[in-house]
Structures are given as C-alpha cells and as structure tokens.
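User: Hi! I have a protein structure encoded as tokens and I'd like to know what sequence might fold into it. I'm fairly new to this, so please keep things simple.
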C-alpha cells in the first residue's frame, strides 16, 4: 500500500485561491467559532449536547464506553425510537402540515408528502411488517428505486427495530442474493420495475432469481411502480397496496436501546466479498443530525434541501433519510437520471421547488461541465445558498465551475469527506466559519479527531502527506462488520493497532496552512462515479467466466467518473479472441455485480506482470491504462512481460 503520488492530484497542492465566508452568511450561520471551542473543551459533553437534538425515551448514563475498543458504545443506557425522531415528533410539535418530501418521479409525476402524511404511511407500513410476523432484530432487505415507499420502508423498519439492508437497485440479482444470505434477511421489499432514462425496466425478476436461492426469505413485498407484468409466487409474494393500504395509520413506537442495530449496508473492500457495515441507533442519528444541521447550515421550515444520492448508498441513508428527517427538513427526492428528459432536469427541479441546499457528487458536476454552462444559466438558481460535494476528491476546476455556474459565486461549497463506515460527515468546512479552498475538505468537524500520519503512525506536519486516520471514536462509527469480527479488526484497526487509530484507507496531505486534501484510496478499492468497487470483486467476476483464465483490474484516471475500470484478461487456451469477447465479458460483469462495475475497457493480454511472490503489480498496469511510460519493473518475476503486454496492445488487440 503506497500513498498516491506523482499524479494530477499533486497539482491540487499548488491551489492557492481561498474563499472566506461572506459577512451576510456568517451573520445567519448555524455554526460559529464557539462550536470547535466547546468540542475541544469537553468532547463527551459536546456530543451529549448534540444528542439532545433528539428525543430520548430515557437518557443515557454514560456518553461513551470505549472499554471494549474497537467496539464502541455511545449513549449507554439511553433509549429512543429512530422513526419517532424522524417523523412523529415533528407532527407532535405542530409541524404536521410542513412538507417533508417533494417527490419528483422520472416520468414527470410528483407527490407532496407532509410530515403528517409521512407519519401515516410509516405507521401503516410498520403495521404491515409486524403483521408478517417480523420482530425487532430481524433483517429486511430493501431493493428499490427512489420511490417514497423506499423511505417509508426504511423508517418502518427503524420503527419496529428491524435492521434494514438496502441494496442498490442497480446491483445484480447475484449481488442481492449474497447480501440477503449474509444478513439472513426474512423479507425483501421491491418494486415491479423502475424508470431509468425514460423507460421502465423490470426489477422483480432479479428478486425472483435471487430469492430462489435464499432460504431465509419468507416474503417478497412488491410496490407497483411501472405496471410491468411480473411473475408471482403465491404465498410468498404480496403487493404493497394489498397489504399496506388497508392498515391502521396508528402505530405506537417502541423505544430501543441506543445501540440497537439500525442498518447494515454492504460496501466493497479489498477482497471479493462485500462487507456488511453495521450501524446502530442513538450515536448514528445524533451525528447524522448534527452534521446535517451545521455542515449544510440547515434551517427547518425555511430551507428546501436536495441530496441527489440514491438510498442504495450511505449518502442516501444519512443525508436523505435520517439526518434531514431528524432535523425536520423539507426536501426534494428525485427518482431518475439527471438527463431525463433532458440535461436541464436538475435545474428545472431547483427552480420548481426553490431548492436552497444542493448536495451532489463531483462526477455529476464534471458531467454538467461537459454538458455546458449554458444549461444551468437558462434557469433561475437564485434560491440556492449552500452547495455540497461528496464521494471522491473534487478537483479545483470542478469546484470553481460549481461555484460560478451553479452557486452564482455566492454559495459556500462544502466538500464533505466521510465513508459508509463513518456513518456521517467527518471532514468538511463549516459554512459561515471556514475559509474554503477549491478542492480541499479543509479539516475535521468539531468533535471529530482526524489526522494525517506516516507509515509509522506519526503525525505529519504542514506540507506533509500520508494516511488519513481517525484518532478518536465518534458517535456514528460502524459497530462492526456483520458476522465478521476478525475482518473488522483486520481491515480498520490492525494497520495502526499500537496507536488505536482507525485506518480509513485514504491518502491525504496537509497544505502549508494545515488544510486537509484527500488524495484517493491507498488500497485496491476503485472509486467510479463516487461508487466504491474493489478490483478483486471485478476480477472474481471476470474469472468466473468460462473463457477467462486470469484477470487483473485497475482504476485508471477518468475525466468524468474520477476513475474508470480497466481490465486485463488472459483467455483460456483455445478461446478465439474475436470482437465479441469484450462485450461478452463486460455483460458478464454487469450480470455478476451490476452495470456500474462494467469495465470501461478490457484488454486481452498474453501475460500479467507479477512479482516473484505472485502478486500482480497493478501499478504497472495502471501505467498502461493511463498511457504512461511504464514505471520500475525490477521487482517483476519476468521483466519482459511488460514489453509483451505493450507490444500486443500496440498491435491493437
Ligand atoms: C471517498 C461515501 C475525497 C474516499 C460517503 C472514501 C472522498 C470513500 C470524499 C468512501 C471527499 C468520499 N473527498 N474522497 N469529499 N468523500 N470520498 O463508503 O475514498 O461510498 O474512503 O462513502 O469515498 O465511499 P463510501
């Protein structure tokens, strides 16, 4: 594992522009300089203060129990109901008529859901799930597009103490199957189909295929969205409208322990098998709400907030469902793709709902740049006041474009660094307080301990680079990997065991002012359009194809998606290397993992570069994939391999 170096990211560090907060913004900002002072004075008291944003049935007796590190317990002894906090209490406080969700369907249909409506729908769904015999602690898989029922389902689970495992609806049936099996889910909630780029695409067949092989599943609950014909298994499959619509909208929420499991979310690691990241209730919701309030400067009842993520990713969990709803946000939820029916869709939505806070990913910003500044320019974006970015390092050009063409040079941009594992934002500027630099996430939030260290775990000074670590437990931290304690210890805690640091897997640097610049992953995890995909996962998918003998996958720099997947494959003896093979292999990867994992490029090669111990040298393949001079080959078992690969490619294979 070596920190990234010598690539374009180093140019970031020559960035010298700074954007201090405007006086008007600072004047009205939620955050002040006192926040960091309070956190520094008494960290646990600071987090206790943040936990009081929530409504607890009984208060904790201890803020943090770290005696069994790295397994943290936050707000020990406290009890609460997460769904009550996100829904009911706002209705009880007299805000039932406030819009919770402006839902915008891809084909142009829309629904307005108030907090009172949300309470009814979540209560009905909770009654429905209970009627299926599900009890607190059971796992439920949710495999759905961005329809309101997906949010109702998550909250209904939370209300009953069921642990949800949301699986991105773009993943394959095989990916769904392995996640259902790993968590031993009893129920899967899905839709008949989903709208994608203006057309309905079936979704339930993938569930049918997965569930045929998952013994734990007892029922499949199906929302009708596209009106597509579906196969039906009597006794197992149930329509949402048959089961949920007739339920009572009264449901008394039970209180659960602060450490009750709230959800599992699978994310790629360095091996082929995704990790089930486990999050619990009180600490998670505290930090999701705290960060949403300060990082986005959110004002309940005034702002219209829009996070463009999908609920299949952690950003959708923390910044569509839990954080914003705990803070009584009015938000936009959009079902579809940004270019349906045309490339102005996002700006039409911003204009239509007067969106004031907009949170998206650098890959989309770069796509907007490609489509042209004239598109946002034709829309009234004057309602916007805060812009956010997440998922990968944002390059200064994209940051500047975002600021100018979306933010009208007036909106602060918050570049937020965090991970599925951290549960909530960890490193970001505070709008109104922090002077921002284009491309930097600036520094850890008040209450968060993060630093950049060298190989030995020693903190590096200003101008220094190395590994990003988190040196203090935080409320929304993962509580483990589902069913795999050893992997949890090995993956995150073994690297800097002596110091007790959490190893994030990212490289980072401090600039001369001490601002933090994230430099991308230092392990074999790729970041494609903000989605984490492991090289091993794609390699396993490729070698599971009958025609492939061996495969090596690298992430190559891509101007739009951040990284693109490039695969080098050796075919089995006797296999014709015809035109069709590349398409066949790309489709195979899509089937095994999902279309997001399809390699951008597949090169058929006679050999792979390996060290004497048989480890594939991805660094050299990355040089080929990025059209660079191939680097140092002296540690290769056979140093002529790279010539063989390059000459083969030059011949156009
Ligand atoms: C990367 C998404 C630079 C990083 C919330 C991290 C970022 C991984 C940023 C987590 C950012 C996320 N700047 N890199 N602002 N945000 N990353 O689990 O490599 O899908 O480790 O969580 O994305 O991805 P995940």
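Assistant: Happy to help. Inverse folding works backwards from shape to sequence: for each of the 653 positions I chose a residue that suits the local structure. Here it is:
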């Amino acid at each position: 594992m070596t920190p990234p170096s010598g690539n374009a990211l180093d140019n970031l560090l020559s960035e010298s522009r700074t954007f201090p907060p405007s006086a008007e913004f600072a004047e009205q900002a939620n955050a002040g300089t006192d926040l960091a002072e309070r956190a520094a004075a008494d960290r646990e008291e600071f987090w206790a203060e943040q936990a009081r944003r929530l409504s607890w049935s009984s208060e904790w007796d201890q803020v943090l129990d770290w005696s069994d590190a790295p397994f943290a317990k936050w707000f020990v002894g406290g009890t609460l109901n997460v769904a009550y906090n996100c829904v009911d209490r706002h209705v009880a406080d007299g805000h039932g008529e406030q819009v919770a969700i402006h839902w915008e369907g891809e084909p142009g249909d829309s629904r307005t859901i108030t907090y009172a409506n949300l309470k009814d729908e979540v209560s009905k769904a909770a009654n429905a799930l209970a009627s299926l015999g599900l009890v607190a602690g059971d796992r439920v898989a949710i495999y759905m597009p961005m329809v309101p029922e997906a949010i109702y389902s998550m909250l209904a689970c939370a209300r009953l103490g069921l642990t949800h495992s949301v699986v991105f609806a773009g993943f394959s049936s095989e990916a769904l199957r392995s996640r259902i099996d790993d968590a031993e889910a009893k129920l899967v909630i899905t839709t008949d189909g989903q709208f994608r780029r203006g057309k309905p695409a079936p979704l339930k067949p993938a569930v049918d295929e997965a569930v045929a092989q998952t013994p734990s599943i007892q029922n499949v609950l199906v929302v009708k969205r596209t009106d597509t014909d579906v196969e039906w298994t009597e006794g197992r499959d149930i329509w949402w409208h048959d089961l949920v619509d007739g339920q009572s909208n009264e449901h008394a929420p039970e209180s659960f322990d602060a450490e009750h499991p709230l959800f599992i979310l699978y994310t790629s690691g360095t091996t082929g098998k995704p990790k089930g990241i486990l999050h619990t209730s009180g600490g998670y919701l505290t930090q999701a709400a705290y960060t949403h309030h300060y990082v986005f400067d959110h004002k309940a009842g005034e702002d219209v907030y829009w996070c463009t993520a999908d609920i299949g990713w952690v950003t959708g969990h923390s910044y569509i469902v839990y954080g914003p709803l705990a803070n009584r946000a009015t938000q936009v939820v959009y079902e579809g793709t940004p270019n349906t029916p045309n490339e102005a869709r996002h700006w039409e939505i911003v204009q239509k709902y007067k969106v004031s806070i907009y949170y998206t990913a650098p890959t989309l910003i770069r796509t907007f740049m490609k489509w042209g500044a004239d598109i946002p320019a034709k829309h009234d974006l004057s309602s916007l006041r805060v812009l956010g970015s997440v998922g990968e390092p944002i390059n200064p050009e994209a940051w500047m474009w975002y600021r100018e063409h979306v933010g009208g040079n007036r909106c602060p941009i918050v570049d937020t660094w965090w991970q599925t594992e951290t549960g909530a934002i960890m490193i970001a500027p505070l709008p109104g307080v922090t002077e921002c630099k284009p491309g930097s996430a600036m520094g850890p939030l008040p209450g968060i301990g993060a630093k950049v260290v060298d190989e030995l775990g020693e903190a590096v000074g200003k101008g220094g680079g190395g590994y990003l670590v988190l040196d203090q437990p935080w409320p929304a931290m993962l509580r483990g990997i589902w069913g795999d304690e050893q992997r949890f210890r090995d993956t995150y805690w073994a690297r800097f065991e002596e110091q007790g640091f959490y190893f994030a897997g990212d490289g980072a640097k401090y600039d001369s002012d001490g601002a933090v610049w994230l430099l991308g992953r230092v392990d074999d995890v790729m970041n494609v359009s903000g989605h984490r995909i492991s090289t091993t996962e794609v390699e396993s998918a490729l070698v599971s194809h009958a025609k492939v003998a061996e495969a090596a996958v690298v992430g190559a720099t891509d101007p739009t998606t951040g990284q693109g997947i490039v695969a080098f494959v050796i075919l089995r003896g006797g296999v014709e290397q015809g035109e069709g093979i590349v398409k066949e292999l790309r489709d195979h990867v899509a089937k095994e993992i999902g279309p997001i994992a399809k390699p951008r490029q597949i090169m058929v090669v006679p050999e792979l570069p390996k060290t004497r111990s048989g480890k594939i040298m991805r660094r050299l393949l990355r040089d080929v994939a990025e059209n660079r001079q191939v680097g140092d080959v002296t540690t290769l078992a056979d140093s002529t391999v790279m010539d063989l690969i390059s000459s083969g490619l030059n011949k156009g294979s």
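A useful reference point when you look it over: The longest strand covers residues 548-558. Feel free to ask if any position seems puzzling.
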